[in-house]
Automatic annotation (TrEMBL), chain A:
The keyword Electron transport applies. Belongs to the 4Fe4S bacterial-type ferredoxin family. RnfB subfamily. Residues 164-193, 210-240, 241-271 form the 4Fe-4S ferredoxin-type domain. Binds 3 [4Fe-4S] clusters. Residues 1-26 are annotated as: Hydrophobic. PROSITE patterns: 4FE4S, 4FE4S_FER_1, 4FE4S_FER_2. SUPFAM superfamilies: 4Fe-4S ferredoxins. Keywords: 4Fe-4S, Cell membrane, Electron transport, Iron, Iron-sulfur, Membrane, Metal-binding, Repeat, Translocase, Transport. This is Ion-translocating oxidoreductase complex subunit B. [4Fe-4S] cluster 3 binds at residues 152, 173, 176, 179. It comes from Marinifilum flexuosum. CDD domains: MtMvhB_like. It is an enzyme of class 7 (translocase). One of its GO terms (biological process) is electron transport chain.
UniProtKB/TrEMBL annotation, chain B:
Part of a membrane-bound complex that couples electron transfer with translocation of ions across the membrane. GO terms for biological process: electron transport chain. Gene3D superfamilies: 3.30.70.20, NADH-ubiquinone oxidoreductase 51kDa subunit. It comes from Marinifilum flexuosum. The gene is rnfC. InterPro entries: 4Fe4S_Fe-S-bd, 4Fe4S_Fe_S_CS, Ion_transpt_RnfC/RsxC, Nuo51_FMN-bd, Nuo51_FMN-bd_sf, RnfC_N, Soluble_ligand-bd. Its main location: membrane. Its cofactor is [4Fe-4S] cluster. One of its GO terms (cellular component) is plasma membrane. The lineage of its organism: Bacteria, Pseudomonadati, Bacteroidota, Bacteroidia, Marinilabiliales. It is an enzyme of class 7 (translocase). It comes from the Bacteria. This is Ion-translocating oxidoreductase complex subunit C. PROSITE patterns: 4FE4S_FER_1, 4FE4S_FER_2. One of its GO terms (molecular function) is metal ion binding.
Length: 316, 442
């Protein structure tokens, strides 16, 4: 009996001594952590996507708390709402950043860009890109092996089997940039979402000379500079045989879309997304042969009329 | 017991179908496309423009740095245009396209077949002439030869090793050069010895070429300091480090060059080109390539002018068989599939292999079962299964620590993997990324 009592007493004594030592050790080595870090982390969307440039939401929260001025920080997932909340928590001014979204700048579908050979190597875009210029005549475009889709953590992308190109589901895209980093050919770009998700961009990254680009792909940008001349806002620059639209200058007038002889400039969500392909093919089907001028002039009138309508509705 | 390298290696089916076929001259095409980047290092700078008349052997693109090489016209005619065209690398690159008119050579090139044994040029003159002639390693790696001959200060070369291994299955171009141009190869070897100031050269030949071993051994008796070293047939014995290990039993340290152990390795084709450049004033504008394949009518060896389209050489060998699934530039182990038959043959084209469909299709990849076969065959002592995972997971620090840069891309791991895993594809990708990171750090 006494052995049991001694055992219990001895254990209790050890426990109490250890607790006292631990208390003092904990006091001595206490690390102060700003409680605001937890608060800010709580406010962030917990997507841990790295779109802000920091390792996860915790890392971003630490950086935000440490910073004196958070106007250059942006959480692409949470957008303006989250950032203003964070700003309120930390007592900083926050500029509302324009929401962005990923766009695929290649329209080299199986139809537009016929295959010239067959790739049979490991199913990875980076491997294919390091080996050769791809299955088609275009050495800049989408390789179609879906590394971007694999990189997406938000199920916001899928490969369209018919076209062989990745498709971005706008509602799900949080603009974290994972796909942009994954693509070895730099096809995907984060662009300003635009009012009512309306945006115009050059859906091509081919820097080859016009004839080479056109031979490889029906809808390649041939660097003809028509759009550059047409743009009233100087938003378009042509460099290395490739046009680029600056989304900060673009006023969505769509004049460039009309003049593009290869339909390389895409407009999104002007008429609702589904109708867009229906509106464009007319131009596409007329285009190929000789009737260049017809194409240029004929559809010009109609969309222009639309144009003004759209713009007014924009302002509402 | 024959010598071979110390670790790893495989022995794929040899398939040397064209070993009996003597080297023939390929007819000159009507149009040649000569890429300005046919070597490792900086691309050459074109010095001709559209409309210029050129002769055979005329310099058309100048070396643009120390590690770069001159490029000469392989035909006579007029420059048609300079344009970006698809070449054997699989990318579009600048090429000089020449429309052929006759076959007029520069006058100072000695076109006679007569053997010139006497080496008049001094060490410096030899290195200069090799550089001027645009000679690159003709084994396939296309590293500019004059760079290898310029021994860095503080290092001394002790021995020259001539790589006549031709360990790639199917290829026989080096084999035929040894049989038909044995004396020229040996004089070339002596020129290289003079340039390096060494008095010993070893020619390593695998024992699947007994006729070449016998022939060169007989001829070598007339030359000082050249030793023929028969080697056990084992892939990748043609790798520089493997060949050094096999012939002189020295191991080149990780990340170092062969000169670290006193060796310089040159290909047997390079030795022949050096002979022609120094003794005959002939720059590198033609070389020998093997066209081969099991279904091909006439597997054979051809001396072709650089810039000749691939389809010409296929035509010469009896046309493309119907069951062709892949055309590989180079040998089956390290060669690269071509994406078009219009690409030009270049200085690095040692062979062309037409594989039938059933042999080319990749088999479905299965999970790694950790059998360790890739580890046991890796001639560099690496762990390919692990490197593949690290490359896939983008763990570049680990890749660098595990010496991914030592990989010679021989493909033994992929060849041997029972789960058909694309080991080399991923390792090569990781290697590229690590190289980028290392360059950025410098």
């Amino acid at each position: 009996m006494s052995i049991i009592a001694i055992t219990i007493l001895a254990l209790c004594a050890i426990g109490v001594t250890a607790a006292i030592i631990l208390y003092f050790v904990a006091q001595k080595f206490k690390v102060y952590e700003d409680p605001r870090i937890d608060e800010v982390e709580e406010a962030l969307p917990a997507a841990n996507c790295g779109g802000c440039g920091y390792p996860g939401c915790r890392g971003f929260a630490e950086a935000l708390v440490k910073a004196d001025d958070i106007s250059n920080f942006n959480c692409p997932v949470g957008g303006a709402a989250v950032m203003s909340h964070v700003g309120a928590l930390l007592g900083h001014e926050v500029k509302a950043a324009d929401p962005t979204v990923a766009v695929v700048r290649c329209n080299g579908t199986c139809e537009n860009r016929p295959k010239t050979n067959q790739y049979d190597g490991a199913a990875s875009c980076s491997i294919a890109a390091s080996l050769y210029s791809g299955e088609t005549g275009c050495q800049h475009g989408c390789l179609g092996l879906g590394e971007c889709v694999e990189a997406c953590n938000f199920d916001a992308m899928y490969m369209d089997e018919e076209t062989g190109l990745p498709v971005i589901i706008e509602d799900k895209c949080v603009s974290c940039g994972a796909c942009v980093k994954a693509c070895p050919n730099n096809i995907i770009e984060l662009r300003k979402k635009g009012p009512k998700s309306r945006r115009i961009f050059v859906s091509c990254v081919n820097k080859d000379k016009g004839a080479v680009a056109k031979k490889a792909c029906n809808v390649a940008c041939i660097g003809c500079r028509k759009c550059e001349k047409e743009c009233p806002f100087d938003a378009i620059t042509v460099e290395n045989n490739l046009a680029y639209i600056d989304y900060n200058k673009c006023k969505l007038c769509r004049k460039c879309v009309v003049v593009c002889p290869t339909n390389a400039i895409h407009e999104l969500n002007f008429p609702p997304r589904k109708e867009k392909p229906a509106a464009k093919p007319d131009a596409k089907t007329v285009k190929p042969a000789t009737a260049k001028t017809e194409v240029k002039d004929a559809p010009k009138a109609e969309p222009k009329a639309n144009d003004s309508k759209e713009e007014t509705s924009d302002n509402k | 017991m024959l010598k071979t390298f110390s670790i790893g290696g495989i022995h794929p089916a040899e398939n040397k179908l064209s070993a009996e076929s003597a080297i023939q001259a390929l007819p000159i095409p009507q149009m040649v496309s000569i890429p300005i980047s046919q070597h490792i290092g900086a691309p050459a700078t074109a010095i001709v423009k559209k409309g210029d008349e050129v002769k055979v052997g005329q310099l058309i693109a100048k070396s643009s740095g120390f590690v770069s090489a001159n490029i000469h016209s392989s035909v006579s005619g007029a420059v048609f245009k300079l344009d970006d065209i698809m070449d054997a690398s699989g990318f579009r690159r600048t090429s000089i396209i020449i429309k052929v008119d006759g076959d007029e050579w520069l006058e100072h090139i000695d076109r006679s077949e007569e053997l010139v044994k006497d080496i008049k040029a001094s060490k410096e003159e030899i290195i200069k002439q090799v550089g001027d002639a645009g000679i690159v390693g003709l084994g396939g790696a296309t590293f500019p030869a004059h760079v290898k001959l310029s021994v860095p200060p503080g290092k001394t070369a002790e021995v020259l090793i001539i790589n006549a291994v031709e360990c790639e299955p199917y290829l026989t171009s080096d084999h035929r050069i040894m049989l038909e141009k044995g004396d020229e190869v040996l004089v070339g070897t002596q020129i290289l010895m003079k340039a390096l100031e060494v008095n010993k050269a070893i020619i390593g030949i695998e024992n699947n070429k007994p006729d070449a071993i016998a022939h060169l051994t007989k001829l070598a008796a007339n030359y000082n300091g050249i030793e023929i070293c028969p080697l056990k047939t084992q892939y990748p014995q043609g790798g520089e480090k493997q060949l050094i290990s096999a012939t002189i039993k020295r191991e080149v340290p990780s990340g170092a060059l062969p000169i670290e152990v006193g060796a310089v390795v040159q290909n047997v084709g390079t030795a022949y080109a050096v002979y022609e450049a120094v003794q005959k004033n002939k720059p590198l504008f033609e070389r020998v390539a093997t066209v081969t394949g099991k279904s091909l009518k006439n597997p054979s060896n051809w001396m072709f002018r650089i810039g000749t389209p691939v389809k010409d050489i296929i035509e010469a060998a009896g046309g493309m068989p119907e069951d062709t699934g892949k055309i590989v530039g180079g040998g089956p182990m390290m060669g690269k599939a071509l994406s078009s038959i219009d690409v030009p043959l270049t200085k690095g084209s040692s062979g062309l292999l037409l594989l039938p469909k059933e042999e080319t299709a990749r088999k479905a990849t299965k999970a790694c079962i950790r059998c360790g076969k890739c580890v046991s065959v890796c001639p560099m002592g690496l762990e390919p299964y692990l490197l593949m995972v690290c490359a896939d997971k983008k763990d570049y620090e680990r890749l660098e620590k595990d010496a991914v840069m030592d990989c010679i891309e021989c493909g033994s791991c992929s060849f041997t993997c029972p789960a058909h895993r694309p080991l080399l594809d991923y390792i090569r990708l990781g290697k590229g990324k690590v190289a980028q990171i290392m360059r950025a750090r410098k």
